[in-house]
Q: What sequence folds into this?
C-alpha cells in the first residue's frame, strides 16, 4: 500500500453515556498563557456534553520545550505528569497536540521499555512518585471520537451550521509519530473532517492541508513560519472557506495571532477567522457565542456569525 492510499480507519460506535465521562485535565503552558479562548470554549463544550475535566494539581510542563536539550529531563517531566493522572484514576485529557505527542510517547515508552521505566522510576522515587502505566492520553478530538462517540455527538447538535464553509488544520503532533499515537491515518487523516461535517458546516478541502504551521521552527528561522502562514491562509481563502479551525494552541497562534504579520509581509489581505474546534462545535451545540470567547480572536468572526441561521 502506498503512503497516499487511505487506510481503513473506522469510526467506532459508542453506547450512549449514562454517567459523566471523567478525565484528568492537562492544560499545558501555551493555552492558559496565550490562548485562553481555547480553554474557555473547551470547558464550556465539555460541560454541555457531560464531560468532567478534573484539575491536575501540581502538574508541570509536558517536557516538549526541553526535549531538544535533554531527552531524559523531558521524559522525567512527562512521567511525573502521568503519575499525577494515575493517582487521580482517570485518563489524561489534552487540548494541545504538542503535549499530546510528548505525553503519549512517554507513556508508551515507559510501558514497553522496562529499562527506561526502571531508570525513570528511580528518578521519580526521589520525589515519592512511581509510574505504573495505568492510564491513557486522549486529545480532545480523540476523546470525542473514541469515548464520547460521533454517533452520540450528532444527537446533540441543536443549531446546524449549514451556511458555513469550514476548512480544517490537523497540525503535526496529532498524527505523528504514528507508531506511538495510533490515531487516525497520518497519511490521509479524516477524523477532524468528520467532526467539522458533524456540525452541519460544509467541509472545505484545500491545497496544503497537512502543511506545518511553522511554530516549531520560529526559534531558528523567523521568515519561514510567516511564509507558511501566508501560504496556508492564501490556499484557504482561494478554496472559499469562511473560516479555518484548529486543534492546537500553537497552530492557532500562528494562523490567528500572526495573520496580521503575514498580511503585512506579503501585502495581502486574508481576513480568515481561525476558530478553535470547540468554538465551532459549541456554536452547533447552540451555545451563545459570548460563552465561547469568540471575541478573543484576533481576526473577528463577524461575517461568519452573521451567516448563522
A:
Amino acid at each position: 500500500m502506498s503512503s497516499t492510499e487511505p487506510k481503513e480507519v473506522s469510526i467506532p460506535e459508542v453506547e450512549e453515556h449514562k454517567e459523566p465521562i471523567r478525565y484528568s485535565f492537562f492544560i499545558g503552558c501555551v493555552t492558559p498563557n496565550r490562548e485562553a479562548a481555547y480553554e474557555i470554549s473547551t470547558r464550556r463544550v465539555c460541560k454541555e456534553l457531560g464531560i468532567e475535566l478534573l484539575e491536575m494539581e501540581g502538574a508541570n510542563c509536558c517536557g516538549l520545550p526541553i526535549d531538544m536539550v535533554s531527552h531524559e529531563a523531558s521524559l522525567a517531566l512527562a512521567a511525573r505528569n502521568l503519575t499525577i493522572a494515575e493517582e487521580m484514576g482517570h485518563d489524561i485529557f489534552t487540548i494541545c497536540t504538542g503535549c499530546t505527542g510528548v505525553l503519549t510517547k512517554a507513556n508508551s515508552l515507559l510501558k514497553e521499555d522496562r529499562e527506561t521505566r526502571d531508570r525513570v522510576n528511580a528518578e521519580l522515587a526521589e520525589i515519592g512518585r512511581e509510574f505504573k502505566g495505568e492510564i491513557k492520553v486522549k486529545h480532545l478530538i480523540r476523546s470525542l471520537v473514541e469515548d464520547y462517540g460521533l454517533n452520540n455527538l450528532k444527537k446533540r447538535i441543536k443549531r446546524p451550521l449549514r451556511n458555513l464553509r469550514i476548512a480544517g488544520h490537523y497540525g503535526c503532533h496529532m498524527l505523528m509519530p504514528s507508531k506511538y499515537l495510533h490515531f487516525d491515518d497520518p497519511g490521509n487523516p479524516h477524523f477532524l473532517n468528520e467532526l467539522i461535517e458533524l456540525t452541519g458546516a460544509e467541509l472545505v478541502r484545500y491545497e496544503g492541508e497537512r502543511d506545518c504551521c511553522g511554530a516549531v521552527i520560529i526559534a531558528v528561522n523567523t521568515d519561514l513560519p510567516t511564509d507558511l502562514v501566508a501560504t496556508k491562509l492564501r490556499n484557504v481563502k482561494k478554496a472559499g472557506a469562511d473560516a479555518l479551525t484548529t486543534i492546537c494552541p500553537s497552530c492557532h497562534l500562528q494562523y490567528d495571532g500572526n495573520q496580521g504579520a503575514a498580511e503585512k509581509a506579503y501585502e495581502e489581505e486574508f481576513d480568515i477567522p481561525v476558530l478553535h474546534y470547540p468554538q465551532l462545535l459549541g456554536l452547533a451545540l447552540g451555545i451563545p457565542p459570548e460563552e465561547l470567547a469568540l471575541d478573543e480572536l484576533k481576526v473577528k468572526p463577524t461575517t461568519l456569525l452573521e451567516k448563522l441561521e
Remarks:
- The CA atoms of residues 96 and 248 lie 5 Å apart.
- Confidence is low (pLDDT under 50) at residues 1-6.
- The longest strand covers residues 21-26.
